[in-house]
Amino acid sequence: MQADPGSRGRRWLRLRVYIGERDRIHGKPLYLYIVHMLKRMGVKGATVYRGIAGYGSHSLIHTADVLRLSEDLPVVVEAVDEEEAIRRAAREVLQVVKEGLVTVEPVEVLFYGHREEAEAV
Question: Do 15 and 79 form a contact (C-beta atoms < 8 A)?
């Protein structure tokens, strides 16, 4: 494994963006737009989680129901990086999220790295 030795024990920030699966921008899913935006900005990594149930500012409970194919399930985009990168990313995210929740909280990084090409199985 190739690890970033400077990341261990360092306090980074986690950006979380809570939106709906059907939220769109420029005709594409907002969660994908945000992931591509974070990548272009050089944020170290991002992950999208699809919820099976939840509710937000409208207090409507959304669930994954096999009888309803077009349900607007909750989606969370999460990214972790150093403070400056996350603060910059959060400002950009706030420009495109019109409904939902955006949070930033501190995290302690214990490991950040990837497998080297030669070690890949």
Answer: yes
pLDDT in tens, 79-111: 999 999 999 999 999 999 999 999 999 999 988
Q: What is the CATH number of the domain that holds 25?
A: 3.30.70.120
Q: Residue 34 is inside which H or E element, if any?
A: helix 30-40
pLDDT tens per residue, range 48-84: 999 887 776 666 666 656 555 556 789 999 999 999 9
Q: In whole angstroms, give the CA distance from residue 48 to residue 69.
A: 20
Q: What global pTM score does this model have?
A: 0.80
Domains of the chain: total: 1
Euclidean distance between CA atoms 96 and 51, whole angstroms: 21
Q: Determine, yes or no, domain membership for 34.
A: yes
Q: Which domain holds residue 22?
A: 11-108
| Residue 80 CA: distances (Å) to CA of 36, 85, 102 | 15, 9, 14
51 found inside a domain: yes
